[in-house]
Amino acid sequence: MATKDIQWDYTNTQLEDGLALHPSIETQPGVISLETIYQSIMEHRQESKAESRRTQLACRKMQMQIRWVAKTCSEFATRIGKAETRISKLEDDATVQEALGDSMKAQLKDAQWKLTD
Q1: Are 8 and 14 in contact (CB under 8 A)?
Q2: Where along the chain do its domains lie?
Q3: Is 28 in a helix, a strand, or coil?
Q4: Staple 43 to which of 22, 67, 94, 116, CB 3.0 to 4.6 Å?
Q5: Cα atoms found within 13 Å of the Cα of residue 60, Cβ hemisphere only
């Protein structure tokens, strides 16, 4: 098997797959150690973990807000349903009262006719 010589571009601090050397690491032309690369990778990993934690916390906060909104909407829907039930009952009661009033008017007219006879 033939081995390939690895050629480094020391003017560019980008490594494969978009992984960059940490800005605090100074690279000298022609000198880069595995320790430097490893250190850069580990620092990048730590930064990624910290960013991931911040993202997770933000997501949890949003989930809590969504749950609160859903709970509040549910409570309002329940209140609206109860109010609609009360309104319907009041309308039914008004219809009954109206019918009773009409019945009483008819009885009064009937009584007036009987008195005039």
Answers
A1: no
A2: 33-116
A3: strand
A4: 22
A5: 6
Per-residue pLDDT of the chain (117 residues; tens, 9 = 90+): 444 544 555 555 555 555 555 555 555 555 567 787 888 889 999 999 999 999 999 999 999 999 999 999 999 999 999 999 999 999 998 898 888 888 888 888 888 887 776
Q: Which long-range contacts (CB under 8 A, 24 or more apart) does 42-47 make?
A: 44/19, 44/20
Within 13 Å of residue 11, how many CA atoms lie on the same side as its CB? Answer: 0
Q: Alpha carbon of 56 to those of 44, 47, 49, 50: distances in Å?
A: 18, 14, 10, 10
Burial (Cβ within 10 Å: 0-12, 13-18, ≥19) of residue 40: buried
CA 61 to chain centre: 9
What six digits make up the tokens of 8? 């480094």
